[in-house]
Every structure is written in C-alpha cells, then in structure tokens.
Design goal:
The complex is a heterodimer. By secondary structure, chain A is an all-beta fold. Chain A has strands spanning about 5, 10-15, 20-25, 30-40, 45-50, 55, 60-65, 70-75, 85-90, 100, 105-110. In chain B, the strands form 2 sheets. In chain B, strands 2, 4, 5, 6, 9, 10 and 11 form a 7-stranded mixed β-sheet that branches. A 4-stranded antiparallel β-sheet of chain B has the order 1-3-8-7, with no helix packed on it. Classes of the chains: A mainly beta, B mainly beta.
C-alpha cells in the first residue's frame, strides 16, 4: 500500500461548483498533514496545513479523520484560478521532517 | 527577492556526462532538501540536510552526491547520467522545528538526458 494515496483525477468542474478531494495515508503514527498546490510546470506551494479539529481558509476547508486515516480538501465557489494539481502531504517520519507527497489530484475549472 | 533559487533552470545533456545543480535559499532556514519529480509527476524526496549535516538519504544511486558548503546552499552532483535521470529536480528549505514544517520550493531544474 502506498504511504499516501490520492485519486489522480482529472476532475473537470464548472466554475462556481464545490469540489472535494480525499487522500488516505498508511502510517497511523503520522503527525502532520498538508495540502500543497502545484501549477503546471511550477513548484509546489503550501495551500494549507490540516489540523485535527479541521480548518478553513476562505473558500478552502481541510479535514482530518485519524480513525479512518484520511484527509480531505473542500473547495467552494471554485474559480478558474483554482485549476492546478493538489498534493496531499503527510509527515511520515515525525521529528525527521520528512514529507511524503501523494501523486496529486488534477483539477480543471471549466468556465 | 527569490527565496529559494536553483540553477540552471534547464539542463540538457548526454548519457554518461557529469552535471551539477545548485540551490540557494535566503530565508535563513536550517534544513534543505532535494526532490525528484518524474514524468508521472510523483514527487519523491532524495536528500535532506540540516545545518550542513545529512539527515535523510533515501534509496538513491550513489551517482547522486549532495554537497552543502553552508546552511544556505545545497548542491546536487550527478555522475554518469542515465536516461532514467530525466526529471524535474526541486530544491526546498524549511525552518527547523515548529509545527508547520512548511517547505519552500525552488522553481525546479528540468533535466533531460539524451
């Protein structure tokens, strides 16, 4: 089983719609969780950290379910500029600052 | 103003050659990384240095040798390049400690081995 698993997509979603991605991780001892965003031919950039209680940043909501070992990202009122690949990232070696990246979910927002 | 910079941005070379990629960060971070992103877009860590000391060394051929002359620089030297080394190589840095472990990535070096 992969350490971090995501549906690669692509997800083609009309502008203004709500879209959600899930990601599962295999190491129950994982402590830190993140969503990164990567635009085409660009470097990954942190979108948001994922906290146990769930957290929201504008149109973006991240949730963590430790019992089922998955994290989710919800994007409301999607914009054309949200088109990107969303990478699920897990710290699988707590204390050693090693991040394991999922393969990413590709999202395209359609006008 | 660039936080994490890499040179060169593009590198095209023939099999068997030796090449280096340079990385510099001006964020004052203690930890730096090298990642490889292959054609399937899978981003995998190769090495991590903390304050010039190697702390993560994933299963990478010993043709790849990182060098950190100081904590702001982490270079990657590759000997005897192979076709399978073609990928985008990203350098990243992060502050030591803290809860966020956010990593800041450089723009990447697109390596093509012919």
């Amino acid at each position: 089983r992969k350490e971090v698993e995501q549906d690669p997509g692509p997800f083609n979603v009309p502008e203004g719609a709500t879209v959600a991605f899930n990601c599962t991780y295999s190491n129950s001892a994982s402590q830190s969780f993140f969503w990164y965003r990567q635009d085409c031919r660009k470097e990954p950039k942190l979108l948001m950290s994922v906290y146990s209680s769930g957290n929201e940043d504008g149109r973006f909501t991240a949730q963590l379910n430790r019992a089922s070992q998955y994290i989710s990202l919800l994007i409301r009122d999607s914009k054309l500029s949200d088109s990107a690949t969303y990478l699920c990232v897990v710290n699988t070696n707590f204390g050693n600052e090693k991040l394991t990246f999922g393969t990413g979910t590709r999202l395209t927002i359609i006008p | 103003d660039t936080a994490v910079s890499q040179t060169p941005k593009y590198l095209v070379t023939q099999m068997g050659n030796d090449k280096s990629i340079k990385c510099e960060q001006n964020l004052g971070h203690d930890t730096m990384y090298w990642y490889k992103q292959d054609s399937k877009k899978f981003l995998k860590i190769m090495f991590s240095y903390n304050n010039k000391e190697l702390i993560i060394n994933e299963t990478v051929p010993n043709r790849f040798s990182p060098k950190s002359p100081d904590k702001a620089h982490l270079n990657l030297h590759i000997n005897s390049l192979e076709l399978g080394d073609s990928a985008v190589y990203f350098c990243a840095s992060s502050p030591r400690g803290g809860l966020s472990y956010e990593q800041y990535f450089g723009p990447g070096t697109r390596l093509t081995v012919t």
